[in-house]
Amino acid sequence: MGAKLGMRAINREKLMMPVLLVAALVGVVLVVSGYWTLWQSRESLSDGNAPTLITFPERRPLAEFILVDDEKGVFDLKSLESHWSFIFFGFMYCPDICPTTLYDLSNVKQEIVARGIDANNLQFVFISVDPARDKATKIKQYVQYFDPSFLGTTGSLGQLTNLTRQLGAPFRAEPETADNVYSVTHSSAVYLVDPLGQYAGIISPPFNAADIAEQFALLYSSDT
């Protein structure tokens, strides 16, 4: 009996080795693809005194991507130029995080403008990661409910993945619970891109509009 138990223990160890190896490889892939950024930012926010807006010491130029905006035009890297862009990924059927965040961003915009920053230098972009159900014209109506100037975009899964990997914003469609009924798991953060199309920072919830506006105003003034 003791020999059998010993063999089982050895077999378990042999089975665990591939599992641990896969886990290690997954960790490497996450770092390379940029998902590490999201995890690291959340860790830094575990301290209650940490700033809501985390800026990067060195900004990262974004690679080309092609999405479709709410006017059925192209939304690409050039669309981010000449503005500070606040980018949020979500989907229209989202019951809580998405509408709450868009409402918070409308308040953030008001707070930033109240600090003397021209609204024309800002753009707030909602990117749907549910292109199968969220069409461009519907997204437009959805985002403009929160603010008439908000932009709505989506694109192919390949192009969405291209951009989300650069920003560290994972998403995943969950299994259907009924015909065409499913949820989409996505990041709850907001991603900040500067007027040169460079990844400049990340804003993690909870969102305090006044705090975000104050921190952004400092960043904005240091760039001008």
**Helix percent band:** 40-55%
H/E element order: HHEEEEHEHEHEEEEH
As a percent range, the share of strand residues is: 15-25%
Radius of gyration: 21 Å
Q: Regarding CATH, which class?
A: Alpha Beta
First and last CA, distance: 76 Å
Strand order of the largest sheet: 1-10-9-4-5-6-2-3
Gross morphology is globular
CATH topology name, in short, is Glutaredoxin
Total of helices: 6
Structural class: alpha+beta
Largest sheet: 8 strands, mixed
Provide the CATH architecture: 3-Layer(aba) Sandwich
Low-confidence runs of at least 5 consecutive residues: 1-48
Number of strand elements? 10
Give the CATH superfamily: Glutaredoxin
Q: Could you tell me the mean pLDDT?
A: 82
How many distinct domains? 1
List the helices and strands and how they pair.
Blueprint: H1 2-33, H2 35-44, E1 53-61, E2 66-69, E3 74-76, E4 84-90, H3 97-114, E5 122-128, H4 136-144, E6 151-154, H5 157-167, E7 171-173, E8 184-186, E9 190-193, E10 198-203, H6 209-223
Parallel strand pairs: 4-5, 5-6
Antiparallel strand pairs: 1-10, 2-3, 2-6, 4-9, 7-8, 9-10
Helix pairs in contact: 3-6
